[in-house]
């Protein structure tokens, strides 16, 4: 859990199942916290129980069997989760795991996951459950109800043992979304399930003692000190099913569909210490170096390169490698052209030419602002960054700073650009290792309100500039018509908003929007192209937020709904 802070800061939760308990003894426990240090808070409470019992039984830790009867969270099946709300609020009631209790052991279920579903209403309807106020917008609550429905049915009908595969096949064929989800059943069985497109990442590792699964490979590698290839990927549509007796199998639950693993995981969400992700982020940066050189007219003497911490650091190293390759090529060309006409001084000057890099921007807290709730985000963005003084030659140097992504543009507009301008650069070039984010995500990344996106704002501005605002009304009309005929899922109408403009025109407008009126430097923005993204992350081609090409039927519905919300002035998610 400590190695997955990157995936959630709203709160944390754990659940435990004890195997082979006497009838009547509670066997499933759950604890959640939304304290600022949620993991610490939870495990302090777990520890307190042990300390308490040690007061009376100082030797008890030598007898784990005995302890199991007294300590709630000592058990055989363990689950932990860090929440990042993509639906509902970020309060403790919505932290995972959710638990459904029942007097029949096999009908108890604890559930947690990294996911987002887009057909929550339909699911509640299917199980005929009217969700309470807290759970109305909770995809986890809907998923729990559906799974519990099929679990109870299976338990009722079963002849020999619970057929978990059968339960999963019935339940998961109903979910529209991206998910990596884990369930503990009161019978002592457990499962991990991944969506059929492989949208969300899912990994597992098995040895003689443990069977473990997580969203990220590196977290498992570090916690269990194992090699890259020992941790396996749970393939799309598959489930890892573990029986109460410790036997396990990987089963095909859903027919595999086109692989559309989320590229934003690679660009931003996942931790960058994963072997493959590190290479991919480096490649993303490398791919941008040529365009950057062009935009500064190859003037490396008067340009300083830096990055916006923290995630972009790796892409920065990649960009630097690209710039160094260019510089080395130039050095060789020059030296060769000299023939024999050089001396030590001339050669020394040439080989010592370097790419100028500096640590310009500093981030004072380890919190991630993007996964922080909207209400506190703006203020946080304004306070977390700082700059290094004395690095830039005012009026002479151009500053090139790379960030992994520009979503709402708040990091740049509310903080970074103004701060960098204080250093007096002639020009600021912002480089984004992700392409323009034009469409919402609905599979587990909280980019759902299209009106917030700086690329969308730019397109709207451009429509105004060119007297083409009628396109907005036409698109809205089309959405209304699709809604009327119940076919909002059939096409992505928002494409029409971007269609009249080139990527460069939109980038130029974004640069204008993120530039506060009172700064002196000229600001430009350079984006990754979609082709280069695919080349850098060939195994993660899920790119709907850049291209509008959604993998599931719910996707088009969400993007159209997000647009309608914008047009109607509703500040809510499109799913
Ligand atoms: O355009 P915006 O809507 O402002 O969002 C984009 C920024 O948010 C993320 O940073 P975050 O602070 O989440 O985390 P990091 O330290 O891992 O980069 C991302 O890395 C960008 O810097
Ligand atoms: N990624 C997560 O932490 C879970 C997201 C889930 N959709 C929720 O909002 O609760
Ligand atoms: Mg960042």
Automatic annotation (TrEMBL):
Reactions accelerated catalytically: 5-phospho-beta-D-ribosylamine + L-glutamate + diphosphate = 5-phospho-alpha-D-ribose 1-diphosphate + L-glutamine + H2O
EC primary class: transferase
Record bears the keyword Transferase: yes
Pathways per UniProt: Purine metabolism; IMP biosynthesis via de novo pathway; N(1)-(5-phospho-D-ribosyl)glycinamide from 5-phospho-alpha-D-ribose 1-diphosphate: step 1/2
Enzyme Commission code(s) on record: 2.4.2.14
Domain of life of the source: Bacteria
Keywords: Glutamine amidotransferase, Glycosyltransferase, Purine biosynthesis, Transferase
Pfam families found in the cross-reference section: GATase_6
Domain (Glutamine amidotransferase type-2): residue spans on this chain: 1-245
InterPro entries tied to this protein: GATase_2_dom, Ntn_hydrolases_N, PRTase-like, PRTase_dom, PurF
Record family assignment: In the C-terminal section; belongs to the purine/pyrimidine phosphoribosyltransferase family.
PANTHER family: AMIDOPHOSPHORIBOSYLTRANSFERASE
Identification of the protein by name: Amidophosphoribosyltransferase
Organism: Chitinophaga filiformis (Myxococcus filiformis)
């Amino acid at each position: 859990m400590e190695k997955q802070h990157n995936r959630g800061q709203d709160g944390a939760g754990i659940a435990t199942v004890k195997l082979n308990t006497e009838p009547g003894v509670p066997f499933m426990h759950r604890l959640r916290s939304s304290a600022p240090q949620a993991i610490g808070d939870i495990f302090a409470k777990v520890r307190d129980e042990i300390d308490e019992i040690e007061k009376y039984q100082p030797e008890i830790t030598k007898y784990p069997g005995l302890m199991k009867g007294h300590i709630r969270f000592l058990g055989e099946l363990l689950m932990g989760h860090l929440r990042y709300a993509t639906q509902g609020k970020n309060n403790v009631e919505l932290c995972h795991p959710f638990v459904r209790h029942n007097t029949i052991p096999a009908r108890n279920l604890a559930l947690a996951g990294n996911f987002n579903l887009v057909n929550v209403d339909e699911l509640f309807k299917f199980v005929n459950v009217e969700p309470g106020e807290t759970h109305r917008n909770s995809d986890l609550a809907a998923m729990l109800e559906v799974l519990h429905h099929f679990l109870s049915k299976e338990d009722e009908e079963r002849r020999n043992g619970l057929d978990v595969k059968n339960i999963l096949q019935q339940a998961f064929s109903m979910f529209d979304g991206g998910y990596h989800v884990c369930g503990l059943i009161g019978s002592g069985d457990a499962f991990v399930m991944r969506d059929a497109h492989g949208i969300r990442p899912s990994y597992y590792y098995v040895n003689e003692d443990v069977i473990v699964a997580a969203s990220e490979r590196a977290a498992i590698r570090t916690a269990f000190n194992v090699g890259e290839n020992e941790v396996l990927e749970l393939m799309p549509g598959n489930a890892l099913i573990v029986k109460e007796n410790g036997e396990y199998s990987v089963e095909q639950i859903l027919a595999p569909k086109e692989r559309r693993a989320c590229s934003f995981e690679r660009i931003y969400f996942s931790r960058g210490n994963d072997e493959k992700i590190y290479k991919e982020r480096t490649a993303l940066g490398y791919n941008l170096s040529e365009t950057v050189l062009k935009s500064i007219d190859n003037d490396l003497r008067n340009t300083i390169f830096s990055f916006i911490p923290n995630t972009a650091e790796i892409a920065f190293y990649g960009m630097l490698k690209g710039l160094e390759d260019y510089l080395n090529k130039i050095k060789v060309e020059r030296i060769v052209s000299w023939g024999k006409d050089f001396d030590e001084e001339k050669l020394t000057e040439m080989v010592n030419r370097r790419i100028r890099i500096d640590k310009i921007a500093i981030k004072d807290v380890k919190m991630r602002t993007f996964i922080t709730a909207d209400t506190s985000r703006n203020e946080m963005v304004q306070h977390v960054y700082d700059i290094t003084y004395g690095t830039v030659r005012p009026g002479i140097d151009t500053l090139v700073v790379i960030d992994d992504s520009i979503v709402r543009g708040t990091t740049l507009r509310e903080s970074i650009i103004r701060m960098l301008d204080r250093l007096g650069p002639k020009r600021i070039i912002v480089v984004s290792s992700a392409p323009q984010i034009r469409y919402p995500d609905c599979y587990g990344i909280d980019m759902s309100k299209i009106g917030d996106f700086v690329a969308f704002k730019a397109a709207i501005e451009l429509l105004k500039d060119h007297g083409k605002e009628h396109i907005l009304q036409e698109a809205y009309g089309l959405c209304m018509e699709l809604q009327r005929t119940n076919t909002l899922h059939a096409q992505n109408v928002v494409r029409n908003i971007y269609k009249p403009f080139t990527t460069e025109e939109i980038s130029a407008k974004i640069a204008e929007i993120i530039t506060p009126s009172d700064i002196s430097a000229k600001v430009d923005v350079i984006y990754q192209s979609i082709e280069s993204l695919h080349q850098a992350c060939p195994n993660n081609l899920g790119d709907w937020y850049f291209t509008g090409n959604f993998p599931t039927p719910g996707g088009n519905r969400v993007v159209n709904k997000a647009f309608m919300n914008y047009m109607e002035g509703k500040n809510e998610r499109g799913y």
